[in-house]
Amino acid sequence: MFVFKTRPKAWFSLAALFPVLPLLNGCVTGAPTISPEARWTDDRGLQIQAHGGGILKYGDTYYWFGEDRSRGLDRSKRYVSCYCSTDLAHWKFCNRVVQLSDPEHLGWGWVLERPKVYYNAKTGKFVMYAHIDNARYQFARVAVLTCDTVDGNYRYLKSFRPLGHESRDIGQFVDDDGTAYLIFEDRPYGFRIAKLSEDYLGIEKEMCLIPEHMEGGALAHYDGIYYVLGSSLSGWRPNPNKYATATRLTGPWSKFQDIAPPGTKTYGSQSTMLLKVTGTKETTVIFMGDVWKPRALWDSRYLWMPLRIGGGKVWLPQPEDWTLNVKTGEALVKNKG
Ligand code: GAL
C-alpha cells in the first residue's frame, strides 16, 4: 500500500516485470473456491457455526445467520451466530447475535432452530424468524426477534403459530420484487408458503398449502418459474430431497421430483436455503445444505453447490470444489471444466 500510494511509477514498473500479479489478484478477489463439506473456518480460524442457516444480502455484503452449536456453551441457552462475506467464500465472524434463555419456559432441551433474517426497509429493522419448540417438538411455533443493526444483539419479541398452524422447520424467501415470505412445515397437512405482514412481525396471508410432508423448505424464482424444494421427514438423517415448480406462488405446483440420485440421499445433506446470485453475466442458484452430524452437531458441515436449473428442471451436481464470482454470477465446477 505504501509503495502504491507514494511511488506509483515503481509499482507499475513492478507490474510490468511481473505481469502475473494482476492475474493472481483476480484469483483472490474474483472467483474463490468453495469446497462442499470441508471444514469451513472464519477469520478467527474457528469452524463456522451457522447450521440450518440463511443468508441476507444487505448492501454488497452477504450475512449468514445460523444455529451456533459450538461446544462448551451454556446448555440452558440457545445461540445464533452471524458471519459476513463479500464473496460467499471468505467469512468474517460478526457476532453471536442471539444468546437466549428459554423465553417461553419450554424447559430442558428447548429448541431454537433454522434462524432466518429479513431486512424491512420500511421500518429499518432486521427481523429474525426461527423455529422455537420444546424437546419433544410439541410447541411448534415461530419465534420473532428484532434488531436495529444487521449484526447487533437481537431482542426476543414473541412466538406464535403462523395463521394458527403448527410450524416446525422454516424457510425464507424474498421474491425479486422484494416481497418477503415464510415457508413453514405444518405437520398435519404439509408445508405452507405465507406472505409476511408489512412490518414483517406477523403473517399477512397464506399463498398456498403444498400437501407434501417436507422440511428444510427452500424457494427460488428463476427465469419466470418458482422452484420449491425440501427434504422429507427423517430428523438428522439425510433423505432424497425433492423439488416442484409453479409459475405462481399460489400454484398449481407440479409433482415432486428428485434433485439428485435418490441413493445418495442428497449426497448426505438436507436443504436449508436456495440463494440466487445475480451477476453481470449469469445468475447462479446455490443449493445450501447441511450435512448434519447428530452426535457432534458442532462439527456438522455445509454442502453448497450451484444448481443446474432452468426450464422447470433442477439438478444438484455431485459435490466437487467449485468457484464463484459474485460480480459476474459465474459458477464453475472444477472437475467439470
Ligand atoms: C430435522 C430438522 C432439523 C432438526 C432435526 C431434529 O428434520 O430439519 O432442523 O429439527 O430434524 O431431529
Overall mean pLDDT:
92
Give a quick account of the main beta sheet: strands, pairing sense, barrel closure: 4 strands, antiparallel
Query: Using DSSP, what is the number of strands?
Result: 24
State the assembly state of the protein chains: single chain
Structural class designation: mainly beta
Low-confidence stretches: 1-28
Count of individual helical segments? 4
Q: Could you say which overall geometry the principal axes of the C-alpha atoms support?
A: globular
Distance linking N and C termini:
36 Å
Q: What is the C-alpha radius of gyration, as a whole number of Å?
A: 21 Å
- Read across the widest sheet, the strand sequence of neighbours is 2-3-4-5
Element-level helix/strand string: HHHEEEEEEEEEEEEEEEEEHEEEEEEE
Strand content: over 45%
The ligands bound in this entry are:
beta-D-galactopyranose
- Estimate percent helicity: under 10%
Provide structural commentary.
The protein has about 325 residues and is mostly beta strands. It contains four helices and 24 strands. It has helices at about 1-5, 10-15, 20-30, 265-270; strands at about 35, 50-60, 60-65, 75-85, 90-100, 110-120, 125-135, 140-145, 155-160, 170-175, 180-185, 190-195, 205-210, 215-220, 225-230, 240-245, 255-260, 270-280, 285-290, 300-305, 310, 315, 320-325, 330-335. The strands form seven sheets. A four-stranded antiparallel β-sheet has the order 2-3-4-5, with no helix packed on it. It has a four-stranded antiparallel β-sheet with strand order 6-7-8-9, with no helix packed on it. The protein starts with a helix and ends with a strand. The relative contact order is 0.12. Mean pLDDT is about 90; it is low at about 1-30. It binds beta-D-galactopyranose (GAL). The site of beta-D-galactopyranose has 9 residues, from strand 6 and strand 14.
